[in-house]
Fold:
Amino acid sequence: MTEPLDADTRLADIRLDHTTVEDARELDIVAEELALYLRRGEHGAVKGFFVVQELADIASLLEHMAPEDALLAMRDLDRQDQAEVFGYLRPAAQVTMAEKMSRAELAALMAAMSHDERADFFKALDPKAQEALLPGLAKAEREDLRRLAAHPEGTVGAIMTSDYATLPPTLTPPQALDALRRQASDVETVYTAYVVDAAHRLLGVVSLRDVLLARTRQTVGEIMEPDPVTARVDAEQEEAATLVARYDLLALPVVDAEGRMVGIVTADDAMDVAEEEATEDIYKASTVGEFDGSVKDASLVALWKARIFWLVLLVFGNIFSGAGIAAFEDVIAGNLALLFFLPLLIASGGNAGAQSATLMVRALATGDVRVADWRGMFLRETAVALGLGVTMAFAVTWIGLWRGGPEIALVVAIAMVVIVVIGALIGVSLPFAFARLDRDPAAASGPLVTSITDVLGVLAYFGIAAALLEIA
Structure:
């Protein structure tokens, strides 16, 4: 990239947007330009550039810079903006950048971060780094961090934040506004406040709008909404995401077993959980196991471990397909045209099964259907599969007539209907079976359905061929 002619105007002319951020090459160009300004010590131009950018876009840009340059650039932001940008970084990038900071600088940065992002970053550090960092934090921050980090991964407690606004039920609206004003700089949101008693048990919720519109002599206890929707701190995180989406909440209160308020799950955190769960389901649907971090950051060994188990297992499962072919060697030897249609038929059954499995896995995940609906869904899928099979059989019959004659065409047509029905019914049944066994329905994946359909399809195809051709 050529060196800029005018440092004060060239960098200021660059404006990051979603198209730039999604283009790695464009980000590399901007990152190189920004690094050039930093090396020349032109921090005023860098600060001016940052002023017109979104913080999330700045984080994406920093990830395309060398860690030393990224840290130098981040220091041109004020402390609060530094904390927000740092929270947008991927965990691996956070750890790398943190290793370049002094203990005092890192502690100051963490003190400015939101409680939940601070806990997420803390858990990404190795135990030795965690112990070295804790003494630099204030006592209250240290205790809050340990409390949040103690919740097991995958639970509501692991994604909640402890910075939320609370009000006692006895306050009048003017007093409540004063209380919210004092808490505003330290909480995630003031649009919703949580009414608690002296023991911090959750009594209700009240919105800022309700406080503003209430009569002066009313109390918070009179205008609050009692018995709000809550999640238990030890519940699965997916439950929190479901509740936020179902009831259209800005934030979901989290309580312990005694009903005491311990945190909130905000809508953006719920979106992150939904994305994480969707990613996990996609991996399972492709028989990819779990691994830490992103695909970009994962080690070669981690990616190998995540994929090898099911691949090896499915290899042995496909041996049964070979055994099925071997059992009908005489039929195949006498009618070699049958082999022409084998890939077509088996692939059709696998495709139909994968479609059915995808529909059922998603329907179970969203609550559209339940385990008790299996019988009805099985009958519906049977009817749909018959229609699909007959349509596909009609299309392939003409190829059968051309390639092998009427007898082969009849075998292929009947086999197509049978194999498509088999694949679809396996695809619709496996997710329900996994759910019945308290396993994730997403584990009833396309490759698993396809492998089972392959074996049964081979047996069905050559069994039909043996029966019909022997009669002919």
In short: The first helix runs from residue 7 to 10. Residues 435 and 441 are 5 Å apart (CA to CA). The first strand starts at residue 166 and ends at 167.
